[in-house]
Amino acid sequence: MSAFLAFRTAAFSLLRPRAPNIPCLRQLPIRAVHNVPTRPRDKNIPYRIVQLVDPITGKLSEPLPLMTIIESLPDKKLEYVELVSEDPAPIVKIINKKDAFEKRKLAKKKASAVAKKNVQKEVQLTWGAAEGDYAHKVGRVREELEKGHRIDLVFSHKKGQDLPTPEEMQQQVQTTVEMLADVGKEWKPPEYRGKIAAVFLQGTVVSEPVITAEDLLPRKEKLRMKKMARKEKKQEQKINPEVEDLYQN
């Protein structure tokens, strides 16, 4: 009997799957990922001979050694050579860092303006709303349209209120649209479904993004200027405490 038990134990030990040998994992430090230029620049351009786009005429030069173009830059801190095309031949441009920064700033502001324009919200009104409530809701719609947003203005029936006729519904909708015509317009026709009507408005007063001189300053320079402004404010307050009121108002 004991021999049988020993045999069974040995068989189970052979058939039982072994636990996998998992190596000890060491947590690696996470490094921040910085924006990497999408186009090769300077010595990272994988071509020895390239054509240069003339910055004034926009015409292509004769094939030139890449290093000759790079070495011709008067100040490599202000300019760099960038690969802009590889087909049918490698083409490069001389990029001014300040100009490139301004273009990125403008593109970012335009993208922000487009994002604001695509915001869509809904405001609900009842057909028999009191004058004060109606004015408040229309005022909210006006504020959103002034930001360039899209607004779905929904008119619905509230229990206990008189239901207007279809003609009265259309008249109230049209009156509301005309009240908001200076800040928004209908981007698609209104919809009427039984007791409900919906008006679809798009804000029309979004201004083009304007880049100020402060926008173009590096972040460190902006912080330095703010620090100096706070310091000057404290000095003026010591001379005349009434200056504090001017900053707060």
- Contiguous low-pLDDT stretches (5 residues minimum) are 1-5, 19-34, 242-249
Cα-based radius of gyration, to the nearest Å: 34 Å
Distance between the termini: 99 Å
| Integer tally of domains | 3
Amount of beta strand: 15-25%
Question: What is the overall pLDDT average?
Answer: 78
Strand count, sense and closure of the main sheet? 4 strands, mixed
N-to-C SSE series?
HEEHEEHEHEHEEHH
Number of helices: 7
Structural class: alpha/beta
Look at the structure and give the CATH class of the largest domain: Alpha Beta
| CATH architecture label name of the largest domain | 2-Layer Sandwich
Q: Compute the number of strand runs.
A: 8
Which shape, going by the Cα principal axes? Answer: elongated
CATH superfamily of the largest domain: Translation initiation factor 3 (IF-3), C-terminal domain
GO molecular function, one term: ribosome binding
Family: Belongs to the IF-3 family.
Keywords: Initiation factor, Protein biosynthesis
Region (Disordered): 227-249
